[in-house]
Task: inverse folding
């Protein structure tokens, strides 16, 4: 009997233990499910400029995975936080969608600025405030390099690759068999289109194609479904490019194809009208034609054509879809900083801080106009306006944190705004020295105090999955 009772007790103990572990397992499952619904990161207490019509500005946003989960008021967003949510306290600083450099050679032409590895170039891109770049000359070697970086998760920024069909009188590319237009290797690397050089620079007026040759090249790429970016600097080259694009589009809207002309250094009124009616995208370089160019060698030549030169304001005001970029490193002073680029677009003041000439000042952009062509309008340039370029629920969590708000500082201070943090797909890929407190992490306590940027925030745990803002004070 005694033995039997022992057996019974043992059985009960085992059953109880099993039941207990089952309960624990179920409750943990529930717990995990609850915490999985919470944001990975909440960014709050800032001036968040969305680049959307409404709301144009919010105080806080939440991120889950690579995407924006919610935007809104400080208290609503903070209340979404869970025990594993990371909080970034902006301390009143400004956050914008990550900037998009629509025409550049940051990685491909890095040797020109003595950067030997692509990793160095990528770090510089991030610290300059760009989260996406278009590389406008990605040949096979460069594509292989980008794919390796991407596969090894070292790309860290989003790259749109444009594959060259020509360079001067040379032709390249059996691209159409190997790659699909818009092909995504990952969310970081994409084949955006092909690139053709119609001319060279405004000092030589040299054309590489006549109308018949250009049309056959463009038609082939168009029929293969590729977006086409055509380098065209001087006005008479642009006439041929516009004739070609008009013929190839055959009355269809360029909204479907998004063909673009690069540089457009010299442009007449009738060409602006024509680009507008065809919907051709204008891709121009914001660090060009600022006061540094007064002393540029080419200036005596430019002087005769200054009424046609660098007409960024006329292009934007005509409603032409526009992309503002650096063409890094191919600008005077190798300007890479997004804030310096913005400043040059708005003031036309160069690195030497000379006074711009009248024809330059006639073509300045407003801060709002310049920001658009570096964010949401730039995203349109690669068919990506639904996934990035503005801050909207569901879009990619690509952001830049700035020391000041470009919409409210004096124009003369734009170049001094610092990039404090660059976030790509919800990951803080760059944090400026001394700004590490921006990424303070607080996890799983019942009550916690965070000190950052002079603001102290106390969070109280409401239940196992929710914190609420209890107190906030400065100190
Ligand atoms: Zn270029």
Result:
């Amino acid at each position: 009997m005694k033995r039997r009772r022992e057996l019974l007790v043992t059985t009960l103990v085992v059953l109880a233990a099993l039941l207990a572990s089952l309960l624990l397992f179920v409750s943990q499952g529930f717990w995990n499910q609850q915490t999985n619904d919470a944001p990975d990161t909440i960014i709050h207490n800032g001036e968040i400029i969305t680049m959307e019509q409404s709301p144009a500005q919010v105080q806080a946003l939440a991120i889950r995975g690579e995407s924006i989960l919610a935007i809104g008021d400080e208290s609503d967003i903070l209340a979404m936080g869970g025990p594993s949510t990371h909080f970034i306290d902006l301390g009143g600083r400004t956050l914008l969608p990550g900037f998009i450099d629509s025409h550049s050679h940051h990685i491909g032409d890095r040797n020109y600025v003595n950067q030997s590895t692509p990793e160095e170039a990528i770090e510089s891109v991030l610290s300059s405030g760009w989260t996406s770049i278009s590389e406008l000359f990605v040949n096979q070697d460069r594509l292989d390099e980008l794919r390796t970086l991407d596969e090894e998760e070292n790309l860290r920024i989003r790259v749109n690759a444009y594959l060259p069909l020509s360079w001067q009188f040379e032709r390249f590319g059996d691209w159409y068999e190997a790659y699909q237009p818009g092909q995504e290797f990952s969310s970081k690397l994409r084949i955006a289109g092909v690139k053709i050089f119609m001319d060279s620079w405004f000092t030589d007026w040299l054309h590489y194609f006549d109308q018949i040759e250009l049309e056959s090249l463009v038609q082939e790429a168009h029929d293969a479904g590729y977006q086409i970016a055509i380098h065209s600097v001087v006005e008479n080259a642009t006439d041929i490019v516009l004739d070609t694009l008009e013929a190839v589009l055959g009355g269809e809207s360029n909204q479907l194809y998004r063909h673009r002309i690069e540089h457009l250094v010299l442009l007449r009124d009738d060409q602006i009208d024509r680009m507008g009616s065809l919907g051709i995208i204008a891709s121009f370089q914001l660090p060009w034609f600022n006061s540094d160019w007064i002393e540029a060698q080419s200036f005596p030549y430019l002087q005769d054509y200054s009424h046609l030169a660098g007409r960024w304001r006329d292009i934007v005001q005509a409603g032409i879809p526009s992309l503002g970029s650096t063409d890094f490193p191919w600008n005077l002073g190798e300007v890479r900083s997004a804030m310096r680029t913005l400043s040059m677009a708005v003031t036309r003041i160069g690195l030497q801080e000379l006074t711009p000439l009248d024809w330059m000042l006639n073509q300045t952009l407003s801060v709002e106009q310049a920001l658009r062509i570096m964010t949401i309008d730039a995203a349109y340039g690669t068919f990506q306006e639904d996934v990035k370029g503005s801050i909207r629920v569901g879009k990619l969590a690509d952001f830049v944190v700035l020391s000041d708000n470009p919409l409210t500082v004096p124009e003369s201070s734009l170049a001094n705004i610092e990039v404090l943090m660059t976030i790509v797909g919800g990951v803080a890929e760059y944090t400026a020295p001394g700004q590490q407190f921006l990424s303070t992490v607080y996890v799983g306590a019942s009550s916690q105090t965070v000190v950052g940027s002079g603001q102290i925030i106390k969070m109280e745990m409401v239940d196992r999955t929710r914190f609420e803002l209890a107190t906030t004070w400065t100190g």
Observations:
- The CA atoms of residues 232 and 304 lie 19 Å apart.
